[in-house]
Amino acid sequence: xxxxxxxxxxxxxxxxxxxxxxxxxxxxxxxxxxxxxxxxxxxxxxxxxxxxxxxxxxxxxxxxxxxxxxxxxxxxxxxxxxxxxxxxxxxxxxxxxxxxxxxxxxxxxxxxxxxxxxxxxxxxxxxxxxxxxxxxxxxxxxxxxxxxxxxxxxxxxxxxxxxxxxxxxxxxxxxxxxxxxxxxxxxxxxxxxxxxxxxxxxxxxxxxxxxxxxxxxxxxxxxxxxxxxxxxxxxxxxxxxxxxxxxxxxxxxxxxxxxxxxxxxxxxxxxxxxxxxxxxxxxxxxxxxxxxxxxxxxxxxxxxxxxxxxxxxxxxxxxxxxxxxxxxxxxxxxxxxxxxxxxxxxxxxxxxxxxxxxxxxxxxxxxxxxxxxxxxxxxxxxxxxxxxxxxxxxxxxxxxxxxxxxxxxxxxxxxxxxxxxxxxxxxxxxxxxxxxxxxxxxxxxxxxxxxxxxxxxxxxxxxxxxxxxxxxxxxxxxxxxxxxxxxxxxxxxxxxxxxxxxxxxxxxxxxxxxxxxxxxx
Length: 521
Fold this sequence. Notes:
Elements (H helix, E strand, L loop, with lengths): L1 H18 L3 H7 L10 E2 L8 E3 L6 E5 L6 E5 L2 E4 L1 E3 L2 E5 L6 E10 L3 E18 L1 H4 L8 H7 L6 E5 L18 E5 L2 H4 L9 H13 L5 E7 L11 H5 L2 H10 L23 H7 L9 E5 L8 H19 L5 E5 L10 H9 L8 E5 L18 H15 L13 E9 L2 E8 L6 E3 L13 E2 L1 E5 L4 E4 L1 E5 L4 E6 L8 E6 L4 E2 L3 E3 L8 E4 L1
Parallel strand pairs: 2-9, 9-12, 9-13, 10-12, 13-14, 14-15, 19-25
Antiparallel strand pairs: 1-3, 3-7, 4-5, 4-8, 6-7, 8-9, 10-11, 16-17, 17-23, 18-26, 20-21, 20-24, 22-23, 24-27
């Protein structure tokens, strides 16, 4: 079980993690011995890639004959590399956006190696589970979207793919599915679940539309059905042992077994830190601008633990990269996960990350897709997700103060009673343009037990659903009512869109949905 394995893993990693330094030196400390004497670049670098532009400083590193003298040229500029054993590294001065450039590393005893068609721009890591892995090929309007990829040669993409886990941090990727590639129908529209990530692509595409001439590098490193624990370092997990213990006491089946491989030899990615080690650590030597994250479905039922582990993971990634980069996540979309509030609780737990600086989000709570061929847990509208993530980035990362990226959020409620009718006057955050109420019904194919719009908590301890709500156009309050309540009961709580498949009816006039909430006195 996860908790039983955690202390042993923390002890197992203690010496190695203590050795890990931030950014480039972190990866170099773990570097594997190079096979042979030929100079080369570490394998997350490649032709056609994007390196981070100014004001950040791009790191480049690789392998050569031990203690060789290595010089790295950026076009016609030469820079002496730092060499430690068989690992060389260089940090370029801040470079303006653009290219193409050629980077050549030369060792006196190791020969030379080059990267060509390199651009400087903004680099993003896109990670998480299946809704981040979900490809453009499976999204709405896929044929047109794939064809339009040819219009974005300034976007470059890299896909790690699935299949590799590790108990120890790796200096390089054990394998990858798609090397650095110029955006094209082939590099974006390979197949379902192959490449390229739809959320990652649409974010990058819309960012390019908003910033003509800005090269964009998109790194897709994700694995469907995985826990946040797998993407977290032992140091990050150690910060949440109390929460993990409490969850395990309530449900010992929350986590998978500690078996690394199944009977058929397939790797089990749901072990502590194994994806962090295999799919994140190899990138720590690269300078990035930001990260996108779509994950959480696998952690449903573990809201309290997630509320600790998710922010801890973000903070730890920033520490290990030595970059306080912007981080943007997706609040989970609807799916038929069953009765109860476990999915809604996880959505709320995700919001704990907003307490960290430089973190934003895009909600997908209104983007349910009951007929998705990939299962309704995988809605096809990834365009809206990408567009909403970009709103977060414009407001937080690109400092555009006039951009609103968060929908209406609960502020307060006043309860009233008249006989067996209860009312709730709800105040949301004030947004430019005010609120809009839209109709919503539980879609065919979704059990009513999965759907909920509003619900009152009464003094008998039960929640009573209702869809009766009106908007006071003057005050911008939403007036919710419940008729036929038990005699003598009083209202002690209210919730909105707090179910696995919420009926979302409250929006801003810019079409951003209100954030689900549960309030109790």
